[in-house]
Amino acid sequence: MITFEQAQNNPELRQSYINSIDLGERGKYVSTIEYIPSPLQVNGIKAFMACIGNKKSKKPKILIPINPFHPRITEDDFLSTLKDHELIHAEQCFTGKHSNPLVSKLEQKLMPIVMNLTPYLQINIQERIMKERDAYQHQLEMAENGLRNISKRRNIHIKKRLNEYMGSHGPLKIITQLLQEGPDEYNKNNIKKLYGKNLQDLITTLERTTPEEQELIKTLIK
Q: Which residues contact 148 (CB under 8 A, 6 or more apart)?
């Protein structure tokens, strides 16, 4: 059997290593897991791994780029992302289910923008936030219950991302993703109307934005 360390050192072995992983009960929700021999971007945003829709099947597929095979990534870090996070998204995609409602702080930060978008996008944004929160919460629970021996670096990352989706940073990421996917003119014009004259209002309302995300917003609402 090919080990994780062998797959790290030899890109030719990575797909075989991925194929050998026992996905457990949630494996039934994913069609394929593919190694991509390059960095991965989803809607213009760098991704460590990604669960994406599959036109040929109701079951999504998971893409794994070169990043998770970096020498400082441990096998439990790798499996934590694949089995405890991306497979949660695969189940969500297949079943259409998620659990957590929006919390009040998140709702307060998000509503000034969301209420001025079309109903379809309002629902889409809320569902994406809840799905990410579910996945990160499950990933953290697996580690804290001793079922996944992740590194301190990965633990900090998961807690940071979960905190972001409990706050206002997550909504900003999802709003930018939806904008990149090609919103209709109604949505573009309403975002312009709200924030086009004073971009700083948007940056202040949706706090903790990175310089890159600020530049992306500037480009999207021109």
A: 76, 79, 80, 84, 142
Domain 4-94 -> CATH class: alpha beta
Q: What angle do CA 30, 151, 74 make, to 5 degrees?
A: 60
The whole-angstrom separation of Cα 152 and Cα 156 is 6
pTM: 0.72
Amino acid at 20: S
**Model pLDDT for residues 7-39, shown as the tens digit of each residue:** 999 999 999 999 999 999 999 999 999 999 999
pLDDT for 114 beyond 80: no
Task: Enumerate the domain spans of the chain.
Answer: 4-94, 104-220
- What stretch of H or E contains 35? strand 33-35
Strand-pair category, 40-42 with 45-47? antiparallel
Asked if 47 contacts 40 with a C-beta cutoff of 8 angstroms, the reply is yes
Separation of alpha carbons 24 and 91, rounded Å: 12
User: Is the four-CA dihedral 72, 77, 152, 66 of positive or negative sign?
Assistant: positive
